[in-house]
Design brief:
Pfam families: LRR_9. The protein is of the alpha/beta class. The chain has seven helices and nine strands.
Length: 269
């Protein structure tokens, strides 16, 4: 065991003895901060560990918590971390993560590692080189939607909307060009004197086409909805009038050809 790991182990044993804890299963929190540690021993023996302080050391990588799946708060600030890939993604219960004041440079890799943490609410990444990248905050907000407090600042709904417009441009433009999902006032009321088969006067004749999907985008969503309503396909239902079908006895006694059954057809838009 390396010297740093041995020092960490001695610190842990001293804490357990001081608190009178004899079983690893009873350990829910550990303080290993400000010890100038370069390495930390495997903490997998503490199966229900929930709170861990490793801040204020000289850690460059973090590989001591690969079997601590129940962590909810992890403090790694003020270290020398250069990479967290493969080290934190399994912590799906994590709610608070402090990573500020480190040497993390690859924003996309860091965000990819944190993406499985759907319970993450508080995240600090400031004072890392990656925080200097363009649109850093918007990128993190968009890819980690559960985060409510980023770098000590509340995530506002306006920031979420801006990030969505920035990184989901195709969906944003599509939503802006169609009227579905919006409230539509519909066509103006008709009078009895108006012919039912004439098109509404509010819609230009040249805009009415047979196929609605070939229409160009309309600036006015209500205009698009009204236009669609008058060009919907006609639906038709046909019913067989069984009351007009003669029974076998009636067919035998009838003189001449029996009356043909009637088919009733209903059409509507």
């Amino acid at each position: 065991m390396a010297g740093g790991e041995q020092e960490a182990l001695q610190t842990i044993e001293a804490q357990l003895e001081e608190r009178g804890i004899r079983k690893d299963i009873d350990v829910t929190l550990l303080y290993l901060s400000d010890r100038n540690l370069k390495e930390v021993c495997d903490l997998g023996r503490f199966k229900i560990l929930r709170y861990l302080w490793l801040n204020g050391n000289k850690l460059r990588r973090i590989d001591c918590i690969l079997n601590n799946f129940r962590l909810s708060e992890l403090y790694l600030e003020n270290n020398e971390l250069i990479d967290i890939s493969g080290a934190l993604g399994h912590l799906t219960c994590l709610q608070v993560l402090m990573l500020h004041n480190n040497q993390l440079t690859k924003l996309e890799e860091v965000v990819r590692e944190l993406r499985p943490m759907q319970a993450l609410r508080v995240l600090n990444l400031f004072n890392n080189p990656l925080a200097q990248e363009n649109e850093y905050r918007s990128y993190v907000i968009h890819n980690l939607p559960s985060v409510e407090l980023l770098d000590r600042q509340e995530v506002l709904q306006s920031e979420r909307d801006r990030a969505w417009r920035m990184y989901e441009q195709e969906q944003y433009l599509l939503r802006e060009t169609i009227a579905f999902g919006r409230r539509a006032e519909g066509l103006p009321p008709r009078t009895r004197s108006q012919d039912r088969h004439t098109r509404p006067s509010t819609i230009p004749e040249k805009d009415v086409v047979a196929n609605n999907f070939d229409m160009p985008p309309h600036e006015n969503p209500n205009h698009a909805v009204a236009l669609r309503s008058v060009s919907r396909a006609v639906m038709q239902y046909s019913m067989f009038d069984w009351s007009k079908v003669p029974k076998s006895e009636q067919r035998r006694l009838a003189e001449g050809s029996p009356e043909l059954p009637q088919i009733m057809t209903i059409r509507f838009k």
